[in-house]
Design brief:
By secondary structure, the chain is α/β, with parallel strands linked by helices. It folds into two domains: 198 residues, Medium-chain alcohol dehydrogenases, catalytic domain (Quinone Oxidoreductase, Chain A, domain 1), CATH 3.90.180; 132 residues, NAD(P)-binding Rossmann-like Domain (Rossmann fold, 3-Layer(aba) Sandwich), CATH 3.40.50.720. The chain is 25% helix and 26% strand. It has twelve helices and 17 strands. The strands form four sheets. Strands 3, 4, 5, 8, 9, 16 and 17 form a seven-stranded mixed β-sheet that branches. The longest helix has 14 residues.
Length: 355
């Protein structure tokens, strides 16, 4: 059986988000149900709602930065109980049997991971998954995360996407104390990259086109700010970075940033899910440099990130909004008018639906 749940979603690429009813499955033996208290707003939500990547199936109910309290668990669930503070990120299912899943990289499941929204729902035939812009969600226990109780609940929500997206490459490429690390772009992803790299002991350089962001970058933990439009400064830093995390969300010139890398160093892309401008092959050949990409992280790695945040009291810088203001928030995200992540107070959904 299934239950009707209140939500906010879009019925076409040109529609605004509005109240709607969606179907959630009943709690199965391996499931956890949570009432959603907060949900972060990711630029991926906007891309999907507006079908900017193609492949959107409507209605779309976005939201993959979900925080909530457990209200029910299935018979086989041992690690969670009613009242626990938990999170759900970008993934809600995978085959659990392929080599990628067994290696704790469910995001690369060879059978295709089930994403939190706009994926085929394995548990409701003919239905798709719906995200966290809703009052509750039912998720397989293997994809539910424990949230440290000492963290601010609302500000923790973006860790489930923006956090793990930046944490995973920093850990995979073994960023450590003393490394010189560049973070390109100071937005939802970039501000988390600065915080994590600083907490890992790196010398952090925020690389931005905007001098106005210098003070904010240093408050977030950057030791230096490099204005990429300043050719003299770029030349000064040439060949000096051990690692660069590139969070720019659109196609851009790569050559200036490649020149900043040391020999055998890596720049990882986490933002631009679209074609890049051509770059000169000599920039990576001369120095055996690497350009790589990274997609979120597996469940084990995400839990490690959350535990690290609990130990170091790291959360996102957020602006809390009511669900009725979500369409304005989307326009502000596109205009880069937020520091640095919107989070929806989902109590406002109940208020909205009761009007």
């Amino acid at each position: 059986m299934a239950t009707i749940t209140k939500a906010y979603g879009a019925t076409s690429a040109k529609d605004s988000l509005k109240p709607m009813d969606i179907t959630r499955r009943e709690v199965g033996a391996d499931d956890v149900k949570l009432d959603i208290t907060y949900c972060g707003v990711c630029h991926s939500d906007i891309h999907t709602v507006r079908n900017e990547w193609g492949g959107s199936s409507y209605p779309v109910v976005p939201g993959h930065e979900i925080i909530g309290r457990v209200t029910a668990v299935g018979a086989n669930v041992k690690n969670f109980k009613e009242g626990d503070l938990v999170g759900v990120g970008c993934l809600v299912d995978s085959c659990q049997e392929c080599s990628q899943c067994k290696n704790d990289m469910e995001q690369f499941c060879e059978q295709g991971a089930t994403f939190t929204y706009n994926s085929n729902d394995k548990h409701l035939e003919g239905k798709q998954t719906y995200g966290g812009y809703s009052s509750s969600v039912v998720v397989n226990k293997e994809f539910v995360l424990s949230i440290p109780e000492n963290l601010d609940e609302a500000a923790t929500a973006p860790l489930l996407c923006a956090g793990i997206t930046t944490w995973s490459p920093l850990r995979h490429w073994n960023v450590k104390k003393g490394d010189k690390v560049g973070i390109i772009g100071l937005g939802g992803l970039g501000h988390m990259g600065v915080k994590f790299a600083n907490a890992l002991g790196a010398h952090v350089v925020m690389i931005t086109t905007s001098p106005a962001k210098a003070d904010d970058a240093k408050q977030l933990g950057a030791h230096e700010v490099l204005i990429s439009k300043n050719e003299a400064e770029m030349t000064k830093h040439k060949g000096s970075f051990d690692f660069i995390l590139n969070t720019v969300p659109v196609g851009h010139k790569m050559d200036p940033y490649i020149s900043l890398l040391k020999n055998d160093a890596t720049m990882v892309l986490v933002g631009a899910v679209e074609p890049l401008e051509p770059f000169h092959g000599g920039g990576i050949i001369m120095g055996r440099k690497r350009i790589a990409g990274s997609l979120i992280g597996g469940i084990k790695e995400t839990q490690e990130m959350l535990d690290f945040c609990g130990e170091h009291n790291i959360v996102s810088d957020i602006e809390l909004i009511d669900i009725k203001n979500i369409n304005k928030a989307y326009d502000r995200v596109v205009a880069a008018d937020v520091k640095y992540r919107f989070v929806i107070d989902m109590a406002s959904l109940k208020s909205e639906m009761s009007l």
